[in-house]
Specification:
The chain is about 50% helix and about 25% strand. A four-stranded antiparallel sheet has the order 1-2-3-4. The chain has a three-stranded antiparallel sheet with strand order 5-6-7, with helices on one face. It is α+β, with helices and mostly antiparallel strands and about 160 residues long. Helix 1 packs antiparallel against helix 3 and helix 2 packs antiparallel against helix 3. The protein folds into two domains: about 80 residues, Pleckstrin-homology domain (PH domain)/Phosphotyrosine-binding domain (PTB) (PH-domain like); about 60 residues. It contains four helices and seven strands, in the order E-H-H-H-E-E-E-E-E-E-H.
């Protein structure tokens, strides 16, 4: 690697919520979990038929609750859980610094090797990295320049992570 790529950002509550929401949305669009929501919608249709033909509302109530929970309640509960964590722990804004090298991402005290990284997801707002221990989000502004961002993406493609 000719030039070192440096990634600098401040980890705080807002970035944690953004990271969690982006990963949640990506996971719901690209995993088999999305079919569970469709199953609940199908149950609502059976509930409507049961309510109209047999005057039975139990399935309609239960399936409507499941649909509302699946599409709206899950993120709301996850967000509240994250906010409660930040209120209890009250972590300060942490300045995070990574240097990209051939063996992985070198942080201040950590090394995230390329073998520990499962997936690198390129998004419009930045780059989402899923490793064994956690999920990181590098906003586009975390890179010094757009060239550094493009070089980082090229390196992750070479390593087979995108």
């Amino acid at each position: 690697m000719s030039k070192q790529i440096e990634i600098n950002f401040i980890w705080n509550q807002e970035l944690a919520l953004i990271t969690s929401k982006l990963y949640y949305d990506y996971d719901m669009r690209h995993s088999n979990k999305r079919y569970i929501g469709w199953f609940f919608v199908g149950l609502v249709q059976f509930g409507i038929v049961g309510a109209l033909k047999h005057d039975s509302y139990g399935l309609l109530y239960a399936s409507t609750f499941l649909v509302l929970y699946w599409y709206y309640g899950r993120w709301y509960l996850r967000k509240r859980m994250l906010l409660n964590f930040y209120k209890k722990k009250s972590p300060k804004n942490a300045h995070i610094h990574f240097i990209v090298k051939d063996d992985g991402l070198h942080g201040d005290n950590d090394l995230i090797s390329w073998n520990d990284i499962h997936k690198v997801i390129k998004l419009d707002k930045g780059i989402l990295i899923q490793s064994i221990q956690n999920t990181l989000f590098f906003e586009n502004s975390a890179f010094k320049s757009s060239d550094d961002r493009m070089k980082f993406i090229e390196i992750t493609k070479e390593k087979g992570k995108i």
